[in-house]
Amino acid sequence: MLRTMAKPASVKKKPAVKRISAVQRARVQALFERFESLELRPKTELHYANPYELVTAVALSAQATDVSVNKATDRLFKVANTPEAMLALGEAGLIPYIASIGLYRTKAKNVLATAQILVSQYGGEVPLNRAALESLPGVGRKTASVVLNELDIEPAIAVDTHVFRVAHRLKLSAGKTPDAVEQDLMRIVPEPYQTRAHHWLILHGRYVCVARRPKCEICEISDLCPSRELFVGA
Questions:
Q1: pLDDT reported for residue 19
Q2: pLDDT average, residue stretch 8-29
């Protein structure tokens, strides 16, 4: 009796890594050299004094402005800037401080759940590695990237709406999702600039390359922008 040989399972090929031309590489290098010349050490606009304050502030900033978060945390961190103090405050004590921030009830639960984990599993300290950070309630990939990058622990380019928009206008990525844009940016941004690229791009998008009408007339990198002609004189 003949037996039919089972066909081997097909192996999916990994997508080929996209290469950029020498001309594109030179433009990207010039672009980030320009950013560096304008601001050597860009930092987050969120107020914080220690890693716990940073993790908390970034988690609270989801779907909220840095300005609104700072108004809340400037008061909150005076009474609770450690996991232990946050737990002592409790949900009823925490909510009045953050009620002006969107999704404050969910965020309050996550902040307290995170504080409990930090106390019970990490001795009250923030674990500064990606896997541990991403396991905390309300701390996803984006928040972990911001924290690790801000503290110069791991190069990461968290992609929010500003970074997404600027990356497309500067033709640094054509990705359709934040993850795709992040992968493109980490691939083409020269290594010496990777820990600062997130801040340069987000601040540029927040104050210059704004959504409705970018301020090309005051933009210091407009000569390096492939999208400039779409907006100048529009």
A1: 74
A2: 70
160 is catalytic: yes
Determine which one of 66, 78, 160, 179 is catalytic. Answer: 160
For the stretch 173-180, contacts whose Cβ atoms lie closer than 8 Å and that sit 24 or more positions apart, written own/partner, are 178/142
Residue 26 maps to a domain: no
Residue 87, domain CATH: 1.10.340.30
List pLDDT tens digits, range 199-221. Answer: 999 999 999 999 999 999 999 99
CA atoms of 173 and 163, how far apart (whole Å): 10
Instruction: Summarize pLDDT for 33-54 with one digit per residue, the tens.
Output: 999 999 999 999 999 999 999 9
**Residue 137, burial from CB neighbour count under 10 angstroms (0-12, 13-18, 19+):** middle
Single out the catalytic residue among 142, 171, 176, 215: 142
Answer yes or no: is pLDDT of 230 > 90: no
The pTM score is: 0.85
Host domain of residue 84 = 51-150
CATH number of the domain at 194, please: 1.10.1670.10
Q: Are residues 199 and 164 in the same domain?
A: yes
Does the annotation mark 184 as catalytic? no
The domain total for the chain is 2
Which of 150, 173, 196 corresponds to the end of one domain?
A: 150
Tokens of 174: 């054509």
